[in-house]
Amino acid sequence: MQRVLPGSTLHYDGSTPGSAEILLSALFAGGDLMLAQVSHISGLEPYVIQNWVARGFLPPPVAKRYSRRQLSRILIIHMLRSVLPLEEICRLLSYVNGHLDDISDDLVDDSALYTALVTLTEDDPPPIKTVLKDYREPFPGAQRRVEQVLEIMLLAYRAAMLKEEAQAYIGRLDIQ
After folding, report:
1. CA distance 170 to 150
2. pLDDT digits (tens, 9 = 90+) for 65-110
3. Nearest to 52 by CA among 106, 108, 100, 7
4. Which of 2, 7, 152 is nearest to 72 (CA)?
5. What residues does each domain of the chain span?
6. From the CB of residue 37, how many other CB atoms can be counted at a distance below 10 Å?
7. Looking at 55-159, which runs of residues are DSSP E strands?
8. Planar angle of CA 5, 9, 13, nearest 5 degrees
9. In the prediction, which pLDDT does 13 show?
C-alpha cells in the first residue's frame, strides 16, 4: 500500500516493513543533501527551513549540506506542526534532545527517532518497546523519555491523519 512518508512528499510501500528505511538510506547514498533537495523532499519552502535553522530548531548545515539527522528533524517538525504549535514541538523534542541546535546532548539520534516513528505508522506496527529494542540508554530513564516522545508523536500523527480525513469529507459535502 503506497503512502506518504510522514512530513514529506515521498511515497513508499507502507505494507512492507523496512521500506521507509531503504528509501531514506538511498536518499543519502551520494552524501548529504543540498537545501533544494531537502525542500523538495519535505515540501517546505527553503526560507522555512532556513528560518528553523536560524531559530535554533536544528543545527545549521555543514558546507550548505543537510545530514540525514537534520532532514529527519525537519520531517518530524513538519509532520507535527499540523496539529501542534511550534513551541510545543520544540518542547517535545527538547525533552529527549536538550538544546535543539546541539547534537552533543541528544538522547536519541533524530534519524533513529524518525525511523522509529515511521515504523509505528506502518501496517501492523510492533510495540514501541520492540521498535526501541536496540536503543542504548546514555543514562537510566532515557529510554522511557524516548518512548513517551514516540507515544506523543504517534498520537499527533494519527490526529493529523484524522484531520486530513475530516477535511476531505467536508470537501465532498454538497453544501449550498
Report:
1. 30
2. 999 999 999 999 999 999 999 999 999 999 999 999 999 999 999 9
3. 100
4. 7
5. 2-172
6. 14
7. 65-66
8. 40
9. 86
Closest CA to 153 of 88, 58, 103, 68: 88
d(CA 114, CA 162): 20
Residues comprising the chain, all counted: 176
Element (H, E) at 129: helix 128-131
Distance CA 102, CA 35 (A): 20
Within the chain, how many helices (H) and strands (E) appear? 8, 4
Q: Which amino acid is at 38?
A: V
Count of C-beta atoms within a 10 Å radius of residue 101: 14
SS3 62: strand
Average pLDDT over residues 132-151: 95
Q: Rg of the Cα trace of the chain?
A: 16
Enter the C-alpha cell of residue 17.
516493513
Please, which contacts does 138-144 make with residues 24 or more away whose CB atoms are closer than 8 Å? 138/107, 142/96, 142/107, 142/108
> Which triple of cell numbers denotes residue 74?
525537519
Looking up cell 543540498 gives 34
What does the pLDDT average to over 4-22?
A: 89
